[in-house]
Amino acid sequence: MKQGDLVVRKSYGGDVLFRVEDARTHNAVLLKGTDYRLLADAPIPDLSVVRDPESTRAVQQVRIKVNESLRKMHTDRERQALDTEEAFRLAQQQQQNAHYFEVPGKVLHLDGDGNYLKKSMQLYNTMHVPAHGLHIHESQMADVLYRLLPQIKPDIVVITGHDGVLKHRNPNEIYSLTSYKNSQNFVNAVRVAREYEKNRDGLIVVAGACQSHFEALLQAGSNFASSPGRILIHALDPVYIAIKASYTSIRDAINLPDVIHGTISGIDGVGGIETMGRYRVGLPKPKVTSTQ
């Protein structure tokens, strides 16, 4: 078994597909989920190498959920575009040049996983969301945010990567940040973001990964966080929420039940608080687009 191999864990019934990230000892390796934002240590004898990942139950079930979530995302965006066009139809009739333009909220996405960042940026691009992404280790996110926030001036910040509840801990320590692999790093980054902009409607913060400390992230100042049920969340769940925030009008609150149930992981995977959207429309459409 070598770095980069795709594997499943026998003791968990092959429920999650992993990639071997690094060797821990001669008999154990560090794993990263291929679809879920999970870090895990595993003994090599418990692992089975997967030659054809698309044929596994773990991947097939995830693909179904992903496709459902993406279909909903596209449908919501199409419905919003039609509503906006109708709202400005009268203005266009009265003045030929009165075409509106859209200003979706701008996203700054920090990701502890380079592969997930690439997938996330592709989805932002597909949905026409302005986004700046950076692959950075979770322990460095707070420092990077401190420098980048004044430069990028985002409307939405996504702070994500890999996390997990430590296997060897006391049962009563589930609410201690020391029981998580990266929740403390996420909390530190959220605090920096909230120090930069204290108004939760002025800067929307989406934070966390698999099994992250949901309550600590909310208390630190995030608008949306994982994971209320300490479950695995899909790699694109934070992106789905960011896109929803980017295309919800600044006049409207983001529909909490709609956005949470629209994620792949559902209400046990992601939760949040009432938040206003960051989408704006303008009139008339500029004839020349600024390069600034």
What does this 3D model show about the protein?
The protein is an alpha/beta fold and 292 residues long. The chain folds into 2 domains: 6-55; 69-282, Response regulator (Rossmann fold), CATH 3.40.50.2300. The chain contains 8 helices and 13 strands. The protein has helices at residues 57-87, 89-94, 114-126, 141-152, 183-196, 214-220, 237-246, 256-261; strands at residues 6-9, 18-25, 28-33, 39-43, 47-49, 101-103, 107-111, 131-135, 156-160, 204-207, 224-225, 271-272, 280-282. The strands form 3 sheets. The chain has a 6-stranded mixed sheet with strand order 8-7-9-10-11-12, with helices on both faces. Helix 4 (141-152) packs parallel to helix 5 (183-196). It starts with 5 loop residues before the first strand and ends in a 10-residue tail after the last strand. The relative contact order is 0.14. The mean pLDDT is 87.
